From TrEMBL:
Alphabetized Gene3D superfamilies for the sequence: Acetoacetate decarboxylase-like (2.40.400.10)
Organism: Gloeocapsopsis crepidinum LEGE 06123
PANTHER family: PROTEIN NEOXANTHIN-DEFICIENT 1 (PTHR35467:SF2), PTHR35467
Protein name: Acetoacetate decarboxylase family protein
InterPro entries for this protein: Acetoacetate_decarboxylase, ADC_dom_sf, NDX1-like
Length: 209
């Protein structure tokens, strides 16, 4: 019997996401050859950082840090490529690796008033401070996709319903962080999601590797 729930996972809580322009040459070696990197500006792709806390009502309760290294496409399907992902629940690590082929690792999360810091051992991975600017008055439902791989190239869809808002965010990624070369400078856009319900579907096999 597995220590984690089977897909789909339904998670409730809140999140903050930052969007960054990322140098394609810095991430090319991280992307499987089957995927084409989307260029949004010459030499630049779109990526970012997603920090969330899933609480009561979730299939598992945990915090999560996701680093999206690039926007990619495969046979007309568009999605993100997750290069780094950290959580504070070992059952989430196991489920993320075995179901979705995601490279989840354990880390420690410290949530404050409009701030969060993530550490792994003695290394600070990142620190985010944010202040709400405004939010929409309704809860739209949005869908997107992501790619991953284990012995196969996978794609999985996710859907999020939340009250979204804009925030003023300051992200610090120390030089010792594993993704310091990917996420440089401050985000050009930062979004919050409160009263969030996230559903992550089981993956589909795209190609045998």
């Amino acid at each position: 019997m597995t220590p984690y729930p089977q897909a789909p996972w339904t998670l409730q809580g809140y999140a903050v996401a930052t969007l960054h322009l990322i140098d394609i040459e810095r991430v090319r070696a991280l992307i499987p050859q089957e995927l084409d990197i989307i260029s949004v500006f010459p030499g630049k792709t779109l990526g970012g950082v997603y920090l969330s806390n899933y609480s009561t009502g979730s299939v598992l309760q945990y915090s999560e840090l996701i680093v999206v290294a690039a926007a990619v496409t495969h046979l007309g399907k568009i999605g993100g490529w997750v290069s780094h992902i950290y959580v504070d629940n070992p059952d989430s690590v196991a489920g993320g690796r075995e179901i979705w082929g995601l490279p989840k690792e354990l880390a420690e999360f410290t949530w404050g008033n409009n701030s969060v810091s993530v550490r792994q051992g003695d290394c600070t991975l990142c620190t985010l401070n944010y202040n709400p600017l405004f939010s929409v008055g309704w809860k739209p439902r949005l869908g997107a996709s992501s790619f991953s791989h284990n012995s196969e190239l996978l794609s999985f869809a996710f859907e999020v319903e939340a009250q979204f808002g804009l925030v003023n965010a300051q992200l610090s990624v120390p030089t010792a962080s594993p993704f310091t070369d990917l996420i440089t400078g401050q985000p050009w856009l930062a979004i919050s999601a409160t009263q969030m319900q996230l559903t992550v579907d089981a993956p589909k096999v795209l190609t045998r590797r």
